[in-house]
TrEMBL record:
Domain CcmH/CycL/Ccl2/NrfF N-terminal: 6-148
Protein family per UniProt: Belongs to the CcmH/CycL/Ccl2/NrfF family.
GO BP: cytochrome complex assembly
Organism: Maritimibacter alkaliphilus HTCC2654
Residue spans crossing the bilayer: 101-122
Keywords: Cytochrome c-type biogenesis, Heme, Iron, Membrane, Metal-binding, Signal, Transmembrane, Transmembrane helix
Protein name as annotated: Cytochrome c-type biogenesis protein
Cellular component GO terms held in the UniProt record: plasma membrane
Function: Possible subunit of a heme lyase.
InterPro entries to which the protein is assigned, alphabetical: C-type_cytochrome_biogenesis, CcmH/CycL/Ccl2/NrfF_N, CcmH/CycL/NrfF/Ccl2_sf
Signal peptide: 1-17
Source superkingdom: Bacteria
GO MF annotation: an example: metal ion binding
Length: 150
C-alpha cells in the first residue's frame, strides 16, 4: 500500500524535462541554470518554462543558458542575451516598462471606461420617461374610440 501511495505522489509531481546530459557538474551553477530556466518561457509551448518543456527549442535554450553560465555570464546577462535573441515574449514575467506599459494599463483602463459607460446608461434609463407616458393625442384618442365602438 505504501508503494502505491509513493508511486501516486511521484506521478503527480511535475516532471522536469532537463535531461541528464544537460546537467552541469557544479551544483551551484546547475541551481543558477534552473533558476534562470524557470524565468524563461518556451516559445513553442507558451505556458511552460524551458525547464519543464520537452520541445527541441526548449532544450536548445537550456543548453544556451548553461553555456552562457559556464562562459562566466551573470544571471541577468544570460536573461538579457536570450531576450535580445527571442524578444520579451520569452520572459515568464514581462517587464512593466516601455511599450509594455500600454498592455499593463489597457485592461484596467478599458474596465473603467466600461464601468463609466454602464453607469451613464443606467442613470439615463432611470430618468427617462416611459414610452406612452404622455398619453394619446386627440386624433389618436378619437381613432381609438372609433375602432373600439365598432
Amino acid at each position: 500500500m505504501k508503494r502505491l501511495i509513493l508511486a501516486l505522489i511521484l506521478a503527480a509531481a511535475p516532471a522536469l524535462a532537463v535531461n541528464p546530459d544537460e546537467v552541469l557538474d557544479d551544483p551551484a551553477m546547475e541551481a543558477r541554470a534552473r533558476a534562470i530556466s524557470a524565468e524563461l518561457r518556451c516559445v513553442v509551448c507558451r505556458g511552460e518554462n524551458i525547464d519543464e518543456s520537452n520541445a527541441a527549442i526548449a532544450r536548445d535554450l537550456r543548453l544556451l543558458v548553461r553555456e552562457r553560465l559556464v562562459a562566466g555570464d551573470t544571471n541577468d546577462e544570460v536573461i538579457d542575451f536570450v531576450v535580445d535573441r527571442y524578444g520579451e515574449y520569452v520572459l515568464m514575467k514581462p517587464t512593466t516598462g516601455g511599450a509594455n506599459i500600454l498592455l499593463w494599463g489597457a485592461g484596467p483602463a478599458l474596465f473603467l471606461i466600461a464601468a463609466a459607460g454602464a453607469i451613464i446608461y443606467l442613470r439615463g434609463r432611470s430618468t427617462a420617461k416611459a414610452p406612452g407616458a404622455d398619453g394619446l393625442s386627440d386624433a389618436e384618442q378619437a381613432r381609438l374610440d372609433e375602432l373600439l365602438n365598432r
